[in-house]
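Researcher: We're reviewing a set of sequences before deciding which ones to prioritize for further study. For each one, I'd like a predicted 3D structure that I can look through quickly. This is 7-carboxy-7-deazaguanine synthase. If possible, include the structure in token form so it fits the rest of the review sheet.
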Amino acid sequence: MIDNKVQQLIDKGEMLPLMEEFYTIQGEGSHTGKAAYFIRIGGCDVGCHWCDVKESWNAKLHPPTKTDLIVENAGKYANTVVITGGEPLMWSLDYITRKLQNSSIKTHIETSGAYPLSGKWDWICLSPKKTKLPLKGIYSEAHELKIIISNKHDFIFAEEQASKVSDTCELYLQPEWSKRDKMTEQIVEYVMNNPKWKISLQTHKYLNIP
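Model: Here's the predicted structure for 7-carboxy-7-deazaguanine synthase, in token form for your review sheet.
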């Protein structure tokens, strides 16, 4: 049970339910191959059946952590932070992004877009899910659209989502990891026929790094 004082700090974004934080190589999307400090925040109700971090879903399992401490830890390692989840926009991210940027750290987020956008971002990766669609306002803000492909119908969903983002948004199709042997060939063919798209692979898993 969280007491009122802690809850007030959470509401202001001065504490966050931290699941894990680690320094690694960005494995997906436009910034693949770059060093970054990952901050994974607990809590998600989007419910992707293929999610590989289902342990992040229940925020109550992840203790509220002082945001200043998270920022301090990040500053020891990297000039880029990726905030992910879970669904990080379930929480107010204005405080943490302001603190990070004041420390000259670039702020990236990966989100389903299902909750209102908070925080100030250098890069927004929007990864929509059919189970809980993005809110309208985030489409125009996204720098990158990443669609996970686990079956042929996902290509239709990808085009529907691509029609809503800006002309400058980078478009990526990424095979769902457990279906990669089956879907990668279809993605290659699709991208060759539709070159506005690029392929994203979970290279960190091929490299066996976090």
